[in-house]
Amino acid sequence: MNQSGTHDRLLNAAEQLFAEHGIGATSLRAITSGASANLASVHYHFGSKEALIEAVFARRLEPLNRERCRLLDAEEAAAGGEPSIESIVNAFVAPAMRLAYKPAGGGEHFMLLIGRLYSEPGDLAIRITEQFGEVFQRFTSALSRGLPHLSRTDLLWRFLFMVGSFSMPLMGRHFIPRRTGGLCDPSDVENNIRRLVAFLAAGLRAAAPNGVKT
Amino acid sequence: MNQSGTHDRLLNAAEQLFAEHGIGATSLRAITSGASANLASVHYHFGSKEALIEAVFARRLEPLNRERCRLLDAEEAAAGGEPSIESIVNAFVAPAMRLAYKPAGGGEHFMLLIGRLYSEPGDLAIRITEQFGEVFQRFTSALSRGLPHLSRTDLLWRFLFMVGSFSMPLMGRHFIPRRTGGLCDPSDVENNIRRLVAFLAAGLRAAAPNGVKT
DNA sequence: GTCTATAGGTGGATAGAC
DNA sequence: GTCTATCCACCTATAGAC
Predict the structure, then answer these.
(1) Cβ of B69 less than 7 A from strand C
(2) pLDDT attached to residue B2
(3) Contact A164/B160, CB-based, under 8 Å?
(4) Residues A173/A189, Cβ–Cβ less than 8 Å
């Protein structure tokens, strides 16, 4: 039926174990054991641990960023090229939040993993973040049309603040309920998207900071 | 002259190497070599690699969080118990930004390291974040007095968004200039503090999100 | 495509001399 | 407090039978 369900089982096991224990701390033995595969199968299917890591990221990032651009396209078409700030923020945030928590999506572990990306040795983070180039460009352009009172520098900073802010509900699955006495539930996805959009749209729209020369 | 400059040299070398290559990827041999110390000295001074890691974090986090509380105290005293949202955000954000980029502070590497905390195996992140308990409590209380239109849940989420957003200028030292064509300079600390405060204060003050039941 | 076996290297930790 | 020498567990990668 499949010449290699092993290939996908390895990706799944790697994704989960990387998210739980960190990339560097996950051995190929743990991965192949979790995938009910042989130790040597990683090298057969991917060539090396490095290549397996890249495959794990590419499998999720490509559809995620395509979906972001698709939503932005739709909003721009619907609004005649001038979508609201809320729509733009939503197009950026919602696909990631849904991927992280939608049970069927298979990305439950992946979003934890994204935050761990920067922790790993070598140039892995740089190679992976190349994948965000188009998204970065498209969304900063869309935002700048809706926020003409901001200099390019202020706009870019606010975009970066946005990226940081919503890493929190993505990465804090275990940490946030603990710290908030259960009040904040990261899996309450659609409400959290609304919370984020309200917060971020207001922050993005704020007057340019006083005393900052650009 | 010193019974053990070795102790501090080990902390310094570990901090730098952890930040550059990740905690798990840094061997004791690399640390002792960087500190011009002997391999066994780590076990003599700290007992284990785990204990060394905790000491690296405690050395920076304790003064940082003390300074945050001190600034908040000062603002509350000056404002008769009702400081502005901007003042509260500033008291939270500014000490970390200054620690990360002030050359004399010795924390150049540390703030990169904080972001890597969640990547590491085991319960390290949980043990370290216990150190934030008092700060979390104090700042959410101060914010809630200034933002009575928010439910406790919405307030806590916005606090978490804030924490995430300013991890960006802290961790993105290398990444941000690259991605913004040099327009955004993470080391432009005082201006970035003003940018963050303007952005976050507006986001915190936004109306409660529609359609979110609390 | 899957397996066993093993090579070749590095990790944290420790004993014991000085 | 500092050093050398060493133990032993574990890692990635590969060779070669099936």
Answers:
(1) no
(2) 41
(3) no
(4) no
Which CATH code, of 2.120.10.80, 1.20.1250.20, 1.10.357.10, 3.30.420.240, is assigned to A59-205? Answer: 1.10.357.10
Query: Do B212 and A202 count as a contact with CB atoms less than 8 A apart?
Result: no
Look-up: residue for tokens 């999720």? A60
* Domain edges within chain A: 1-47, 59-205
Chain B, 143-172: which have a CB under 8 Å from a chain A CB? 152-154, 156-158, 160-169, 171-172
Tokens of A124: 């892995």
- Within 90-109 of A, beta carbons closer than 8 Å to B belong to none
Is a pLDDT exceeding 60 seen at residue A164? yes
Given a cut of 60, is residue A3 above it in pLDDT?
Answer: no
The answer to whether residue B131 neighbours chain A at the CB level (below 8 Å) is no
Give me the pLDDT at residue B20, please: 87
Q: What is the pLDDT of residue B213?
A: 59
Q: Does A65 score more than 60 pLDDT?
A: yes
- Asked if residue B202 keeps its beta carbon closer than 7 A to nucleic acid strand C, the reply is no
Q: Is A18 on the interface with B (CB under 8 A)?
A: no
Helix H segments across B79-212?
A: 85-101, 110-116, 124-129, 133-146, 152-165, 167-171, 175-179, 189-205
Instruction: Report phi then psi at B182, rounded to 5.
Output: 85, -5
- Residue segments in chain B with a per-residue pLDDT below the cut of 50: 1-3
Q: What is A1-47's CATH topology?
A: Arc Repressor Mutant, subunit A (1.10.10)
| Integer Cα distance of B192 and B149 in angstroms | 28
Beta carbon of A118 within 7 Å of strand C?
no
Reported as half-sphere exposure (CB side, CA atoms, 13 A), residue A33 has a value of 6
Q: Are A202 and B205 in contact (CB under 8 A)?
A: yes
Distance B59 CA to D5 C1' (A): 33
d(CA A188, CA A170): 11
Give the closest of A129, A183, A207 to B198, CB-based.
Answer: A207
Q: A104, A170 in Cβ contact below 8 A?
A: no
- pTM of the prediction? 0.93
Interface contact B184-A213, CB threshold 8 A: no
